[in-house]
């Protein structure tokens, strides 16, 4: 486990999506976060106290988390310099970038001299096997998306919380750096060699016989030319009983690819169901989660109603409005019956 409390790193970022790892920790592990570090040219904030390295260490921070997504997952000179500054004042450093902290000799030497640790969150297990796709016991739900960074992790966490509130055993299975930092464990699926992706997910969510659910965090999109391979491997390895489609309305294009439009909801859902049937012919869609954080309340509710009419599935922003309708569909509970039970 990475020792907390944490100092969350924003650096020079000016893209709110690029700080999603720091934002996720601030949202779901806020009690473990003492503050945020950002340079003067960074216009973003997580609503935490802004601190210098020495201030954070004095306030009890034990690890600085480089919670940003840099271009290509690279450790640029500024990140290395800031990581060194954190080590200098006695903090460990954690990162989930594709370039590893342990490959920076300066950081390795500083950590060794000070008895500190470098945590590379994006390290997959070393002994993975290829997936087989054989039927296995247990209930599994996978979130899928129209695009990258549309709220799959937030939705999966919200659905996990909603199931537990019903008294159902439910476990969040993290597949990305942010989710792993929140959960404390998982498989960074985008760092797994392609042949082993489905096998990694079979290990992450193995057969279970307790009637509980594994809720598996989706990654990428079948429609994104850069990341569709990871999305497909997840679909096959998860062998999901249920899919939840995630979307952020109003995107002008696929993330990082100007000129390429995002796909429609119905098309996205059908393609994901088609791919999931390779390992579970009985897979079903149970709902749609939309990120309406850029919309006002009435507009968001109207949109959810339109999507429900279009797809015949419950639709909600699970962060703003809860996930009860999707849980009803997942557990095959009639909302009216639930309401009657609650009234007694």
From TrEMBL:
Q: Tell me which residues make up the D-glutamate N-acetyltransferase-like C-terminal domain.
A: 133-326
InterPro entries, per database record: DgcN-like (IPR011669), DgcN-like_C (IPR035086), DgcN-like_N (IPR035402), P-loop_NTPase (IPR027417)
Tell me which residues make up the D-glutamate N-acetyltransferase-like N-terminal domain. Answer: 46-124
This protein is called what?
Answer: N-acetyltransferase DgcN
